[in-house]
């Protein structure tokens, strides 16, 4: 059983369609490879997660509103990575510790 057409014009049409399809597939493969390379480069240049986070209030000049362990997903979008001593100082000054990640317990800070 032959599934190809018997005449030359239809075979040429099929050849052209296959060539165009192959070009499209190769283009999609190239785009996927570029996206993967960009993703890998992004992972390589991503700065390390800070150990401690101070979450800021709505205003840029407002004092910190919470202390978090680095990488806490409850930190929101307005935060700065800080060293251990600044996180401890913020807790001592009354900045709230995140109830989810418990930085006070991680830091060994007891009221």
How does this structure look, described?
The model has no long low-confidence stretch (mean pLDDT 92). A hairpin with a 7-residue loop joins β1 and β2 (64-69). The termini are far apart. It is rod-shaped and about 90 Å long. It contains three helices and four strands. The chain is 47% helix and 15% strand. It has helices at residues 8-45, 84-92, 103-107; strands at 52-56, 64-69, 79-82, 96-97. The longest helix has 38 residues, at 8-45. It has 111 residues and is α+β, with helices and mostly antiparallel strands. The protein has two domains: 1-46; 52-107, no CATH class. The protein has a four-stranded mixed sheet.
Secondary structure blueprint with pairings:
Layout lengths: L7 H38 L6 E5 L7 E6 L9 E4 L1 H9 L3 E2 L5 H5 L4
Supply the key terms.
2 domains, alpha+beta, single chain, four-stranded mixed sheet, 111 residues
Structural class comes to: alpha+beta
Strand fraction equals 15-25%
Low-confidence stretches: none
Strand arrangement, major sheet:
3-1-2-4
Helix content: 40-55%
**Major β-sheet annotation:** 4 strands, mixed
Number of helices: 3
- Please count the beta strands (DSSP E, at least 2 residues each): 4
Total domain modules = 2
Q: What's the rounded overall pLDDT mean?
A: 92
Series of secondary-structure elements, N-terminal to C-terminal: HEEEHEH
Rg, Cα atoms, Å:
29 Å
Q: What is the terminal separation in angstroms?
A: 84 Å
| Backbone shape | rod-shaped
């Amino acid at each position: 059983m032959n599934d190809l057409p018997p005449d030359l014009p239809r075979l040429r049409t099929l050849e052209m369609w296959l060539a165009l399809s192959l070009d499209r597939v190769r283009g999609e493969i190239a785009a996927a490879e570029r996206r993967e390379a960009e993703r890998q480069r992004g992972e390589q240049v991503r700065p390390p997660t800070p150990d401690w986070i101070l979450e800021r209030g709505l205003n840029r000049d407002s004092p910190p509103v919470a202390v978090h362990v680095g990488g806490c997903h409850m930190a929101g979008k307005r935060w700065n990575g800080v060293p251990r001593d600044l996180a401890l100082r913020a807790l001592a000054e009354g900045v709230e510790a995140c109830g989810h990640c418990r930085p006070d317990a991680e830091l060994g800070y007891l009221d």
